[in-house]
Amino acid sequence: MRPENNIESIRKKIEKNLRQLPFMEHATKLASIRGERVYVVGGYIRDLIMGVGKKDIDILVVGDGTGFAVELGKLLGIQEVMVYGNFGTANFKFDDFDLEFVAARKESYNKESRNPEVVPSTFEDDISRRDFTINAIAVSINEDTFGEISDIYNGIDDIFAGIIRTPLEPDLTFDDDPLRIMRALRFASRFNFSFDPGVFEGIKRNAHRLEIVSQERITEEFMKIMATTQPGIGLRLMYETGVMGVVFPEMEKLGGVEQVDEYRHKDVFYHTCEVVDNISRVTEDVWLRFAALVHDIAKPQTKKFVEGTGWTYHGHEEFGARMMKFIFKRMKLPFAKINYVKKLVRLHLRPVAISKEEVTDSAVRRLIVDAGDDLEDLITLCRADITSKNENKVRNILKNYERVMQRVLEVREKDALRAFQSPVRGEEIMSVLDLKPGPQVGVVKTAIEEAILEGIIPNEYEAAFKYMLEVAGKLVK
Ligand code: CTP
To answer: What's the first-to-final CA gap in the chain, in angstroms?
Structure first.
């Protein structure tokens, strides 16, 4: 994603775009009346130069940013302007746009505190305290200089060169707000940009400072990296800068764990990055991507050398699924997603296991039932997990998965298994067998379900009812 570098055409493009924003006429007039210098700055300008549309617009006011926001809000008929006094910022929504106003300021994190201290400053000072040169480009919206670009730190050149650089010394920039380390990784991942060597070293030196940042903010950035087109870029950089060790130590431990296929030694961490990139080509669902990220997470703990077989990772899928509780809790990930991720981790070896030709219908049935509505996602994960460079091997494995899906279709059609449960319900088991609610009802129900899965009886009410009567004598004491 590298746009054409022609400064005059860029200027014209930006000016035209800003002019047609639905609130701009009012904003420009208000800036004249109030006698303040006002700029559009940050991500909106960066993305415009990159040729990407964006709905969040940051407006920098040299003066009283919140006062400007409140007055502009009135002119536009906005009911509610949110003002954050402590931070000197305000925002409101207008049309599709999310406008964020800020007074030129310096923001500084005190070493022990998570909250920034904010003090007013000049335009130059404000710009210099921003995170990256690509985010430090400002465009005037005052009438006399409308569309003039201020690019003190050559951010436009860095956009074209694809480089993440800080306006000031990286140590100072990251010390001001260590979350910027995660932002740097996100921008590198999103745009496929590289780090200026100073930024790379600065991140390495300051990675531990992420410890003072709240987990919610870190996790938000982490998931944004997972949402980029090639999350593997950000993940590798996280690993190589030492950030992974701070943010996601279980992932870092995959580094250096080698698994051997017939052609090469594969490092489990780098293999995982490839898997995540593979899956990201076919899905934007960050939770499916996350499942791909963690599918082998327990390999280090389960690695064992077995004479004659080599290295094994017996049970890593189950162990990995169990690790999710701890990881979701620590990273403050949404618990609504944990069962989905656990399921995919736990089952990720099953499709390979049942791809053999001699596999019985009952094994296929069990996979259908265990994976439920997530079977397609599971197969997507399994396909992405193929990172072999041996084309023949890849073709064979893919063919195997096609066979699995074919078998799944056949069995599903035969049994209508998708929403599987015993066709005879608990209530009926209780009344027919004269049972009180309790474990015995479950025993009978499970026996019916097992019989269907094993193919002993069809997935039909009549057969299930008859089977219940047959086994009741043996099961119910
Ligand atoms: N900024 C900063 N340090 C931060 C966060 C933001 O210097 N930790 C500055 C940057 O100039 C940034 C602007 O504030 O461009 C707006 O921040 P934000 O809206 O969070 O991000 P964007 O850069 O607009 O990009 P995106 O929306 O893609 O996150």
So the answer is: 71
Neighbours of 60 (CB within 10 A): 24
Site to probe by mutation for ligand 1, drawn from 61, 98, 128, 135 as the one with most ligand atoms within 8 Å of Cβ, is 135
Query: Are 138 and 106 contained in the same domain?
Result: yes
Q: Say if ligand 1 is within 6 A of residue 177 CB.
A: yes
Q: Is the CB of 179 under 6 A from ligand 1?
A: yes
Residue 387's pLDDT is 85
pLDDT, tens digit (0-9, with 9 covering 90-100), for 154-175: 999 999 999 999 999 999 999 9
| Domain stops at, among 156, 174, 196 | 156
- Is 392 found in the same domain as 467? no
Q: How far apart are CA 315 and CA 12, in angstroms?
A: 60
Say what the pLDDT of residue 265 is. 61
Residue 407's pLDDT band, with cuts at 50, 70 and 90, is confident
Q: Output the pLDDT for position 391.
A: 85
Q: Is residue 171 helix, strand or coil?
A: helix
Burial of 38 (0-12, 13-18, 19+ CB in 10 A): buried
Last residue of a domain, one of 156, 181, 208: 156
